[in-house]
Amino acid sequence: MANGLYRSLVYATDKTDFSSNDYFGFSKSLSVKNNNSAAGSSGATGSRSITGNSLLAEDTEKIIAQFHGAEAALIFNSGYMANVGLFSCIAAKGDTFISDEYIHASIIDGMRLSYASRLRFKHNDLHDLEKKLQLAAGKKIVAVESIYSMDGDEAPLKEIAGLCKKYDAILIVDEAHATGVFGDKGEGLVSKYHLTKDVFACTYTFGKAIGLHGAAITGSHTLRNYLINNARSFIYTTALPPHTYLQIQDAYKALPMADRTKLFQLIAYFREATQTMKGLRFIDSNSAIQGIITGDNFKAKALAETLFKKGFYVRPILSPTVPVSTERVRICLHTFNTINEIKMLLTEINNHFL
Questions:
Q1: Same domain for 244 and 289?
Q2: Which residue in the list 61, 100, 104, 187 is annotated as catalytic?
């Protein structure tokens, strides 16, 4: 990696947050604060299959499954561990994964750990997906994100589900950035489009709109039991601490009341304001994930550093995380941001390029 492009860790609580995935500010909300006394203990003491299981954990999974309209749910310690666990064990030699070219690294790593073949289709390209489905051998498993983490754009889930039906493929959807944000109550896009019965499994993470950590995979009771017995990232790790399950329950109770109207008003304002900024290239996103394309790693870092000095916490996204020439500064919008803060951010972006 070229000098100056190594990652570094930043601590910036005094900056205006345009970077975190905490879309509704739940991480700071009193409604999801720790409750150790009700949890009964501070630690899980072991994996779920040894001493770490509890009625609290299983009740939380039932709440999650019901919220998303699924038969069952299984909680993992993170979204990364959920995807690695699922994709590493769900296919066998002779089967084929078919994933969007922009799929999350956790899914890529999970697929690599399996014995199945892998094909990629062009981002959100239904024609290319169909070609790959025609080429695939064995059990076909299609993997997409409902909202993509870098471009903030939406997968054409209805059409993808239709192709999966046509070619007898199973569909897995990562709802990480749709959880809480899309749907009448924040159920995500699979539920919003009434596709639950057409989707084999969904991943819902708690580290974004829910403001905590951990994740759940939803699907059938059979899938849940299969993962309990085969997902190594579930089997061989200490379970979440008991108080986390209480926090997750509180967050799910709060999700229906989250101010999605305000969030989408801010998104609309941001998109309208950036359309008047001539000569600058912003990503085309209708989600809380926005960004400005610099087309160069060093330019992305320079812009992020300028904005940091001006009091805005944003982070550069460099290649190879995103394709070469699409390097960017990623901007996330939250209900605790204001129109005035967005105006000031865009002013500083404009000034940087003058």
A1: no
A2: 104
